[in-house]
């Protein structure tokens, strides 16, 4: 028998309609009433960690979720975390870094419609999540819309469709059809080292999306308020230096000790600063290169790395390393 712990953080899947709109309100114990589980094979326990709309999810909450997994780790074979869809990708990525040497399955899921709605996707998503959590595949995964996604590769692409999430720059791990798991790629279950919680974060990170007409003074204003900066640039990556000179401003911030990461607004294929002059003017030894990481994975990874050290060189090494 597989023992699965269902951890609730709120979100649409457990929301109820009120005069103020949807708000989390269905107790976690009631969610499992909607599941058809073979109790001779799977035993489900529940625990409420949070009960919030995921728009309110903060880095401090990621730590609470990671701690809940860590504290119950020895008692269960797998974990399912119900979560609102809006920030689910950030949480799944953060857990991927904080739960080091994970030797069990942690699944993050949610739904577009509440689980008790007439046309809900919550029952399928929760059932699929429990099914996959019982599989024994090591790591953090997002299960949504019949697809299994590596925890650092999920991106919410749609606001209303039941296939809201896609795997960006990485194949889907598996598909789930009528509780049958059809693997697309096999995840290595070789884990070296003892499982441990590594949850110290530095959340003083500013995310800036570059746009035509943006003024470099925007970045000047964050000096002293943030230790890290992620810039979502255009295309393959680069900084404008005509009319509005972002290059000079960013260089100044780096020289003053700001840790800067360069990524792209394009979802697929990643950034490459070697292609154009606007990219080559940047000293790549002084900035963090996102390569093919999506922003939802890059942001918590930078916070996690900065929680370990304030040394820009060491932070760069950690963030640019393939950890998951």
Automatic annotation (TrEMBL):
Protein origin, superkingdom: Bacteria
Keyword Phosphoprotein set for record: no
Coiled coil region boundaries: none
Signal peptide span: none
Enzyme class: hydrolase
InterPro entries for this protein: AsnA_fam (IPR006033), Asp/glu_Ase-like_sf (IPR036152), Asparaginase/glutaminase-like (IPR006034), Asparaginase/glutaminase_AS1 (IPR020827), Asparaginase/glutaminase_AS2 (IPR027475), Asparaginase_C (IPR040919), L-asparaginase_C (IPR027473), L-asparaginase_I (IPR041725)
Enzyme Commission numbers on file: 3.5.1.1
GO molecular function: asparaginase activity
Keywords noted in UniProt: Hydrolase
Keyword flag Hydrolase: yes
Catalytic activity: L-asparagine + H2O = L-aspartate + NH4(+)
Regions that span the bilayer: none
Binding sites annotated in the UniProt record for substrate: 54, 85-86
Residue ranges constituting the L-asparaginase N-terminal domain according to the UniProt record: 3-184
Record-annotated active site: 12, 85
Biological process, per Gene Ontology: amino acid metabolic process
NCBIfam families the record matches: asnASE_I (TIGR00519)
Subunit structure: Homotetramer.
PANTHER family on file: 60 KDA LYSOPHOSPHOLIPASE (PTHR11707:SF28), L-ASPARAGINASE (PTHR11707)
Stated family: Belongs to the asparaginase 1 family.
Name the record gives this protein: asparaginase
């Amino acid at each position: 028998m597989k023992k699965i712990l269902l951890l609730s953080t709120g979100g649409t899947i457990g929301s109820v309609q009120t005069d103020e709109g949807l708000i989390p309100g269905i107790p976690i114990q009631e969610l499992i009433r909607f599941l058809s589980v073979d109790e001779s094979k799977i035993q489900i326990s529940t625990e409420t960690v949070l009960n919030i709309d995921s728009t309110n999810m903060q880095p401090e909450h990621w730590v609470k979720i990671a701690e809940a997994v860590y504290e119950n780790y020895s008692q269960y074979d797998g974990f399912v975390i119900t979560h609102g869809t809006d920030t689910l990708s950030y949480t799944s990525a953060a857990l991927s870094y904080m739960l080091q040497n994970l030797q069990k399955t942690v699944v993050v899921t949610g739904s577009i419609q509440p689980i008790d709605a007439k046309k809900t996707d919550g029952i399928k998503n929760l059932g699929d999540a429990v099914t996959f959590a019982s599989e024994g595949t090591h790591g953090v995964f997002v299960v949504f819309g019949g697809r299994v996604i590596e925890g650092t590769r999920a991106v919410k692409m749609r606001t209303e469709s039941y296939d809201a999430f896609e795997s960006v720059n990485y194949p889907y791990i598996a598909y789930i059809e009528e509780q049958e798991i059809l693997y697309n790629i096999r995840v290595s279950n070789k884990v070296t080292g003892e499982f441990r919680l590594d949850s110290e974060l530095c959340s003083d990170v500013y995310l800036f999306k570059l746009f035509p007409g943006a003024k470099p003074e925007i970045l000047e204003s964050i000096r002293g308020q943030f230790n890290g900066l992620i810039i979502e640039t255009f295309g393959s990556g680069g900084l404008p230096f005509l009319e509005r000179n972002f290059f000079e401003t960013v260089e100044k911030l780096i020289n003053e000790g700001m840790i800067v990461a360069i990524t792209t607004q394009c979802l697929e294929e990643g950034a490459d600063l070697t292609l154009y002059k606007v990219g080559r003017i940047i000293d790549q030894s002084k900035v963090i290169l996102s390569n093919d990481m999506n922003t939802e994975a890059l942001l918590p990874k930078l916070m996690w790395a900065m929680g370990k050290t304030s040394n820009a060189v060491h932070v760069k090494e950690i963030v640019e390393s393939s950890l998951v």
